[in-house]
Amino acid sequence: MSDSVSAAPKGQSATDPFVGRVIDERFKITGLIARGGMGRVYRAEQLPLGRACAVKVLNPNYTSTQDAEFHKRFFLEASIASKLTHPNTVTIFDYGRTDDDIYYMAMEYLDGRTLHRAIRQAGFFPEERAAHIARQICRALREAHSMGVIHRDLKPANILLVEHADEPDFVKVLDFGLVKQVTESRSEDLTQAGLFMGSPKYMAPEQVRGDRVDARTDIYALGVILYEMACGKVPFDRPNSVHILMAQVQEQPPPLHVANPQATVSPALEEVIMRCMAKDPEQRFRSMEEVLVALKLVSGISPIQGASRPRDGAAGAGVAIAPASGPSGSLPTSETGPQSMSASSTGLTAPSASPSTGSVLAWQQAVPKRRSRKVLATGIVMAAGIAGVSAYAAIRVEHLPARMAQAVAARAAPSPASAAPAPPPPPPPADLIVKVRISTDPDGATVKENGVPICSSTPCDVLYADADPSRVHEITLSLAGYRVETKAIRVGDSPIVVQLTSAAP
């Protein structure tokens, strides 16, 4: 269902020519659920199983000049969606074309309401509910992206909330009608014939411009959805679509407390939302897995909880965390599938075995000028430091430095059975996590160590795990219009201030 789809009025099914018909001798139409400009959705019974299902039927009177491409998109949606098996994605049973040219797609019957309607009814969601729904969307899209597929039309109207056992907000991602395989050649791209594809309020800037899209395009849309759940409004709402599209490309989203003063959103969640919505795809999270980890940290959930296992010996997207001293690598897209996370993405990085760098443990977070983000820098670093160490210890304790491995093992050791709840684990020893403040004059420099970005914009705080006070770390600082500076530092030198020199004309 989408914004253009309306519920069928009472009595409509009595005159609908499809009601009572059996599609392809297997799906008996019993009633009309909803209708839109290009088709209708019916309630049906799958024969001979007697299973309830929903059947999407294209409007036989649809006479668009893009008929051929429209039908190709319909079959592309059906063929791709039928391969997706995640519980948070709608299940496709069958699809095809009848002898009288009726295009249909049979899928599981879902009794729920769209996220669009839920937001309108509630006004806005409490933070935990918004994060809970967003985590499920991440998991559904993570599977699609791992298959080289992006959604391109992610919006609240395409997300259904159903009751599943004792879970009232169980997510089902619908409508892969604009799905795109990023491996297909541009000559086969179904949006090349002048068609405007997508929903303006949720479109990423690169999608508006017609540039190459990848997994980060869906991440932008998820950021807009999170924004809307958290404050009840989309960041850009203008009188017409053209103005909305211009705002998506040119304007920064207003802070959540400005969009809705009644909404209470933690600085940590707001930072996640704004990073998802960065104009430059390079500045966003690189994968749905990284968004999922960040949302877990915001909610105080261990990053490894519910993570998927590696397949065929490969690094699982849910557990593989790259060493801080390793190369940053290429940005993961749907073409390459899930990738390991690095310091420049979520900032959750494993303690490195490299003797030269130590390891950057927590979520790297720039220290902005306003107070709310200072609170974020403290809160998210504390959560990431504790949860990140525990998560990594559960995966590869043998790769931790000796002192940290012993400390993590001691904290992870099971306690004797007791009726009383187990106390929360103590924080890591102070000498295992050291914060280094890096500033430059002027601000805004990028900081790298061994070629790996550890700070996107100074001033910032960088956390080192198992840091040796005597170890020398060589960092480089770069800012447009200024010379690149190389500086040898020790963690005990904090705070570190570097005066940048203007580049010669």
Describe this structure in words.
This protein has 505 residues and is of the alpha+beta class. Among the domains are: 6-108, 2-Layer Sandwich (Phosphorylase Kinase, domain 1), CATH 3.30.200.20; 113-186 and 196-295, Transferase(Phosphotransferase), domain 1, CATH 1.10.510.10. The chain is 28% helix and 20% strand. It has twelve helices and 21 strands. It has helices spanning 12-15, 67-81, 115-122, 127-146, 205-209, 215-231, 241-250, 256-259, 267-276, 288-298, 371-396, 402-412, and strands at residues 6-7, 22-23, 27-35, 39-46, 51-58, 92-97, 103-108, 112-114, 149-150, 159-164, 167-173, 180-181, 359-360, 365-366, 433-441, 446-449, 452-455, 460-465, 473-478, 485-489, 496-499. Strands 1, 2, 3, 4, 5, 6 and 7 form a seven-stranded antiparallel β-sheet that branches. Strands 13, 14, 15, 18 and 21 form a five-stranded mixed β-sheet that branches. A four-stranded antiparallel β-sheet has the order 17-16-19-20, with no helix packed on it. β4 and β5 (51-58) form a beta hairpin. α4 (127-146) runs antiparallel to α10 (288-298), α6 (215-231) packs antiparallel against α9 and α11 (371-396) crosses α12 (402-412). It is elongated.
Continuous helix count: 12
State the helicity in percent bands: 25-40%
Shape: elongated
CATH topology title of the domain at 113-186 and 196-295: Transferase(Phosphotransferase), domain 1
The CATH superfamily name of the domain at 113-186 and 196-295 is Transferase(Phosphotransferase) domain 1
The first-to-last residue Cα distance is 58 Å
Main sheet specs: 7 strands, antiparallel
- The radius of gyration is 25 Å
Number of strand segments: 21
Task: Give unreliable regions as ranges.
Answer: 1-6, 181-196, 307-412, 415-419, 427-432
Oligomer: single chain
Mean pLDDT: 73
Structural class: alpha+beta
Beta-strand content? 15-25%
CATH hierarchy, class of the domain at 113-186 and 196-295: Mainly Alpha
